[in-house]
Protein: UPF0173 metal-dependent hydrolase SAMN05444008_102305
Organism: Cnuella takakiae
Amino acid sequence: MRLTFYGHSCFLLELGGKRVLVDPFITPKPAAKDIDISAIRPDYILVSHGHGDHIADCVAIAQQSGATVVSNFEICTWLAGQGVANYHPMNTGGKKTFDFGTVRCTNAIHSSGLPDGSYGGNPMGFVITSGEESLYFSGDTALTTDMTLVPGWAKLNFSIFPIGDNFTMGYEDAIEAARMVQCTTVVGVHYDTFPYIVIDQQKAMDAFAAAGIRLILPAIGETIEL
């Protein structure tokens, strides 16, 4: 499985012969100025919740690529009103098999409002299974014991957790989340984008290493194999 990181919580997965973009927030970030969103051609776009730092480029990329957007009902309805033609509504607890694999929507403890102030529905995470490979993207969330359910659904190759604190769990809680989901490889997201979520990256790396968990912090535009 290949993952390309576009900064904050946005990344592209290549799995099951398809390209799946998650939480498209690219153009507003100065650090991502070299990323050309017109060159990003996903088959699917997964949106965890409605905040602008997760959905800012969704309409543009969905329209240029024809990708199917998978999100909660309220976000899909809002996107349809913005001119997005292809979408599949889901909600917490549901699962659906697509041509790249199965998506299960998990609980995320957060808030969700859309850029125009309208209701964004329930925030979610995703357990994605494609063939023998599985990953868990928690979305923006606090640490929650709901995560202990994840190992019953999938044996994870890796997890993707926010580590920036303030708006989500910090890296200390992300270590506990990794233990709950029984996963020893974590990709950290949702940190250093804004002053509120700047972290000491070395401290985070050291804390994960001390817990026997591998923390990966890819550079913007970097592609990694997992």
